[in-house]
Amino acid sequence: MPSQPDIIDARLLLALTENPRATTVALADQLGISRNTAHSRQSRYERDGTLDSFERRINPAALGYPLTAFITTQVTQRSLNDVAAALTAIPEVLQVHGLSGAIDLLVHVVATDAEDLYRIAAQILAVPGVERTSTALVMRELVGYRITPLLDDIARRR
User: Fold this and answer.
1) What residues are paired with 96 via a beta bridge?
2) How far apart are CA 45 and CA 80, in angstroms?
3) Of all helices (H) and strands (E), which one includes residue 136?
4) SS3 state of residue 26
């Protein structure tokens, strides 16, 4: 995607967030653009990583994982890639973000209960290269993941 998406990009991405299964023809009709324009932009979004996976968001609580936590992690800098690779092997790790500052990683995890969270945190701490962790339990989600307001703003500004 260009560094600054245009109004067609924003409108097309909004339409895709509203109906991810929409056909290219339906999107083109909805937006009043040609099928070729819709198709070429969607292809570009897939190539450049604008469109992430079409994986449906499943609430971990529905799978028996009602606890969500964030584990801040300090690592030996030369081990960062190895630590990230090791974290991918832990199924309860949903996301890992590299950070600037005193904390190196923000690890998003889910657990079945407090004892399970303790086990997961210990497993992360045992990864070679992990120096220190701190766990924060999510009490409730106040604002869930969202992209629509940002796309709406881009579509209005351009």
Assistant:
1) 107
2) 29
3) strand 130-137
4) helix
Top pLDDT among 91 and 19 is at 91
> How would you label 119-148 residue by residue, b for 16+ Cβ within 10 Å and e otherwise?
ebbebbeebebbeebebeeeeeeeeeeeee
> What angle, rounded to 10 degrees, do the helices at 35-48 and 24-31 form?
120
Say what the pTM is. Answer: 0.80
Query: For the chain, what is the total number of helices (H) and then of strands (E)?
Result: 6, 4
Strand pairing class (93-98; 130-137):
unpaired
Per-residue pLDDT tens digits for 108-144: 999 999 999 999 999 999 999 999 999 999 999 999 8
Least reliable range by pLDDT among 24-28, 53-57, 69-73, 97-101: 53-57
Half-sphere exposure of 71 (CA within 13 A, CB side): 29
- Sort residue 129 into left (φ over 0), alpha (ψ -120 to 50) or beta: left
3-class SS at 125?
helix
